[in-house]
Automatic annotation (TrEMBL):
The keyword Transferase does not apply. It comes from Desulfoscipio geothermicus DSM 3669. This is Transcriptional regulator, ArsR family. PANTHER family: ARSENICAL RESISTANCE OPERON REPRESSOR ARSR-RELATED (PTHR43132). The lineage of its organism: Bacteria, Bacillati, Bacillota, Clostridia, Eubacteriales. Keywords: DNA-binding, Transcription, Transcription regulation. NCBIfam families: HTH_metalloreg. Residues 4-96 form the HTH arsR-type domain. Gene3D superfamilies: Winged helix-like DNA-binding domain superfamily/Winged helix DNA-binding domain. InterPro entries: ArsR-like_HTH, HTH_ArsR_DNA-bd_dom, Metal_resp_trans_reg, WH-like_DNA-bd_sf, WH_DNA-bd_sf. One of its GO terms (molecular function) is DNA-binding transcription factor activity.
Amino acid sequence: MKDLNKYEEPARLLKALAHPTRLCIVAGLMNDSCNVNKMKGCLNLPQSTVSQQLAILRAQGIVDGVRSGTEVFYRVTNEKVKEVVKVLLGDDAEIFK
């Protein structure tokens, strides 16, 4: 266990995924992009809560947003995170349908 630095990034990603709302958002964005309005409806949460959780995921490099007019469509950009979520949730990894 000489080189603990190699565990920094995986631990950071796991910490970001360790909140149920953030995990649910990432699961919902696995195969398609989505905007905040659709997410808040699917999650039954206020827009402010969804936006706060997305900001955390963006800061950790897990999701990214692409602006289209007045809307921002989010998608998962980290392939390692996709693999982890698939292992954790299996077929339940698609919720924003």
